[in-house]
Amino acid sequence: MRPMLILPLLALTAAAPATSPKTPSEAVAAAPASAWKTIPAEDLMVLDVAGNRVVIQLAPAFTPVHAANIRAFAQSGWWNEGRSAIYRVQDNYVVQWGRNETEDPMPAGVVKLPPHEYHRRLRGLVVRPLGFADQYAPRAGFALGWPVAYDPRAGTANLTHCYGYVGVARDLAPDTGSGSELYAIIGHAPRALDRNIAVIGRVVSGMEKLSAFPRGTEALGIYQDRSQDIRIASVRMAADLPAAERPSFQYLDTQSAAFGSYLRLRANRKDDFFTRPAGGVDLCSVTIPVRATPAD
Amino acid sequence: MRPMLILPLLALTAAAPATSPKTPSEAVAAAPASAWKTIPAEDLMVLDVAGNRVVIQLAPAFTPVHAANIRAFAQSGWWNEGRSAIYRVQDNYVVQWGRNETEDPMPAGVVKLPPHEYHRRLRGLVVRPLGFADQYAPRAGFALGWPVAYDPRAGTANLTHCYGYVGVARDLAPDTGSGSELYAIIGHAPRALDRNIAVIGRVVSGMEKLSAFPRGTEALGIYQDRSQDIRIASVRMAADLPAAERPSFQYLDTQSAAFGSYLRLRANRKDDFFTRPAGGVDLCSVTIPVRATPAD
Description:
eight-stranded antiparallel β-barrel; 26% strand; five-stranded antiparallel beta sheet; 296 residues; alpha+beta
């Protein structure tokens, strides 16, 4: 069977660098080494579940207290050895996992009721504008390698609920969630959640495993029976792993010229397959390029 | 384990009708019977695969030649008895299935190279505007129960690549694809495909099965080995099934007052969970409400 094309949003194989890239993937392939920023090992959470490895990048520049909580949970082994599980998979919405913090006392160093880290001050961020309207905020763009929505008048900026982004499950306000239970977005970006809940990072590897677990059949996609829960073997910070086992990833600097070229081409797909460029793009369709750190 | 809330975009259980609905799901629950339109059985394609049933609504008002092709494929048994398969699942993009038409002569009545049904004339459509900007077209809104992007100046309207929407796989232009191979969107809406490819309908039931198949590991998400392909048992039109086995679905009339209320609340989520309404919404986040036709 010769499958038809339907080109991917971002080609999986690197295209040959060109003087003037014609596709988003060519723009990424043409980026110089200096345009790639290595993610600190302290910001990488390594989740091993059902034989799959999922790596999540934390965003302490936006959610510092939640990032510290999550590091404390991981470093104490709070989630390990089957004490936590994936218990909810709601189609076109979220996969959710964690451990109920009411069962046992929380580990030392965890702030039980963190502040509302739903946005941060815009001041101090250098933002590259998306260049197109956003339905959920006055402006949208990119800062520190993240997609952001922002409000110049209010002076605030927030991370957004794009595909693969990770947030903190919570009960009703004023609860903000400690970080003991987390979710990742597995469908169309539910941006209405922005500024109502803390986005703490994004999946940088293994998302295709996390998104393919069976959907739960109870309300909200909860698995019907606790025996269906998918037990988590361990959640560790990359910095705490032996050097030889430590994963390492880089993101494309959103201030780099290469990213600018990538963004421009995302909004103007025109190649052998795309014959009508849209002349625009939405924030969550501009996936931030991430790669494994090259061996050299 | 007491899971935390993270409310769904649309509650699965019907809320009690209220005089003034406060949430999108309340607005849908409050819709009178007259606001629900039954989908003709001639427009429902029933796909049985690996023990799952997936029902797809065709959109002949937008893609009449492709709809006729698809009916002809289904009625001839073209895809049945394992002659077609799901062979591609690319994360955050598409699940794709079908049968390679070059293997055998196509059934009678199939137009091998259909016209470019990538958009239709705006004239004749009554459109309810979204009310917010769209990054991919001059305007966005709803017509005949479908999300549409449109261009009043050019006089055109097109169906959009939202989650669960189904398009026709094709090779490079001028090929438009016959409809023998199809795909459904399983991630963030890849709207850049709009007007480059024919959208022929949407999944109205079983999407949560279609989206959970394992992702393919080859380029473009193709399964590595043909033995991994997921064989399709049958694809039939609902109209050709015995009455007792015939599925029936209804969509909420996008011209109804109930839909207007639903749309307004989608853009202004404010309830016990959402404390900061966005004051806006993007086209693909306004999922068109669909339900099984009530027994009465």
